């Protein structure tokens, strides 16, 4: 019997209770322990510390397969469990991409062998045939990184999801604008060492226009959207105008809620993210959290050398 008793646990309603765990599962929650409850000598007194359900992180990049010099399923899931996360949803941009049935199955088997917590997998979008084949493995959802594709490609990719009934998750940055402003900023050598130029290269306008295109494609193909890591209050206002008439959910990340691009002055390129941190005028704040459906960490490890590029 893998039994455990957690004494003096504080719940969210401030009540103090005891948790009895039998064979790894919660068997009973009680205010007072009786003699019959004492099924184990393994008793931990939490001394009125808070107990919460296991957290779910809907947005992680565990880098396995193909990029395991950064992290693998074992190290990533162990860190998640240590932080109180009992379920994670992994993104498809590993190497190879999780956008074919073979690659999806390979990652699933890797995770089953290595993961220390429950997991689900997102799938990439490659072709209509690949989407239909991956559906047999019941992916959590599909994901498109919109900054990597032209408008024509995006229209086709959104169309592959029509009539699948699956959620489409999106990284929203407009490829044309990102490429244009990146090229323009590189013309000035002073921008090479200015981290804030990175926020300008991948501007809040690039995010807003990308979301506008996503909404248009979703209407065309009758899709349910989940917009990952919204980074700008302008995008948030735009999405709110459509949510009453469309099936759209949105995700916040801790760094976009708590930080703005002034932290580049202290942390330099270590604070680089995609999408970038915004200036204070366009940055989100804690008061915006009530407008979001979920919080995802967008956990995505890189080497220090990669962060400086």
Description:
This protein is α/β, with parallel strands linked by helices and 309 residues long. It folds into two domains: 4-45, no CATH class; 55-307, Metal-dependent hydrolases (TIM Barrel), CATH 3.20.20. Helix content is 32%, strand content 20%. It has eleven helices and twelve strands. It has helices at 73-82, 101-114, 128-134, 151-160, 175-186, 196-201, 204-221, 233-242, 254-258, 264-267, 304-307, and strands at 4-10, 16-22, 25-30, 43-45, 55-60, 85-90, 118-124, 141-145, 168-171, 225-227, 248-252, 294-295. The strands form two sheets. An eight-stranded parallel beta sheet has the order 5-6-7-8-9-10-11-12. It has a four-stranded mixed beta sheet with strand order 3-2-1-4, with no helix packed on it. The longest helix is centred in the last third of the chain and has 18 residues, at 204-221. It is globular, with a radius of gyration of 22 Å. The relative contact order is 0.10.
Biggest sheet, strands in spatial order?
5-6-7-8-9-10-11-12
Mean of all residue-level pLDDT scores: 95
CATH class of the largest domain: Alpha Beta
Beta strand %: 15-25%
Report the uncertain regions: none
Write the layout of secondary structure elements.
Elements: E1 4-10, E2 16-22, E3 25-30, E4 43-45, E5 55-60, H1 73-82, E6 85-90, H2 101-114, E7 118-124, H3 128-134, E8 141-145, H4 151-160, E9 168-171, H5 175-186, H6 196-201, H7 204-221, E10 225-227, H8 233-242, E11 248-252, H9 254-258, H10 264-267, E12 294-295, H11 304-307
Parallel strand pairs: 1-4, 5-6, 6-7, 7-8, 8-9, 9-10, 10-11, 11-12
Antiparallel strand pairs: 1-2, 2-3
């Amino acid at each position: 019997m893998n039994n455990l008793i957690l004494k003096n646990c504080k719940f969210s309603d401030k009540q103090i209770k005891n948790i009895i765990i039998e064979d790894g599962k919660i068997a009973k929650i009680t205010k007072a322990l009786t003699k019959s409850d004492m099924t184990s000598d393994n008793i931990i007194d939490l001394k009125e510390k808070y107990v919460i359900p296991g957290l779910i992180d809907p947005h992680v990049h565990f880098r396995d397969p193909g990029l395991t010099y950064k992290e693998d399923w074992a190290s990533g899931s162990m860190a998640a469990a240590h932080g109180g996360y009992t379920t994670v949803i992994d993104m498809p941009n590993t190497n190879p991409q999780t956008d074919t049935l073979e690659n999806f199955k390979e990652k699933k088997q890797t995770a089953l062998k290595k993961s220390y917590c429950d997991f689900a997998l997102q799938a990439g979008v490659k072709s209509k045939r690949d989407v239909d084949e991956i559906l047999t493995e019941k992916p959590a959802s599909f994901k498109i990184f919109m900054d990597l594709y032209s408008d024509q490609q995006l229209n086709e990719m959104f169309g592959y999801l029509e009539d699948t009934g699956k959620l489409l998750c999106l990284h929203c940055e407009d490829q044309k604008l990102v490429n244009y402003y990146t090229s323009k900023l590189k013309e000035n050598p002073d921008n090479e060492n200015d981290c804030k130029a990175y926020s300008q290269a991948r501007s809040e306008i690039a995010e807003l226009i990308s979301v506008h295109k996503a909404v248009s494609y979703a209407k065309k193909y009758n899709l349910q959207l989940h917009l990952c890591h919204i980074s700008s209050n302008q995008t948030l206002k735009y999405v709110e105008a459509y949510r009453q008439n469309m099936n759209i959910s949105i995700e916040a990340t801790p760094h976009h809620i708590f930080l703005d691009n002034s932290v580049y002055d202290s942390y330099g390129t270590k604070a680089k993210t995609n999408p970038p941190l915004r200036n204070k005028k366009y940055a989100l704040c804690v008061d915006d959290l009530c407008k979001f459906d979920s919080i995802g960490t967008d956990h995505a490890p890189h080497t220090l050398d990669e962060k400086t590029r």
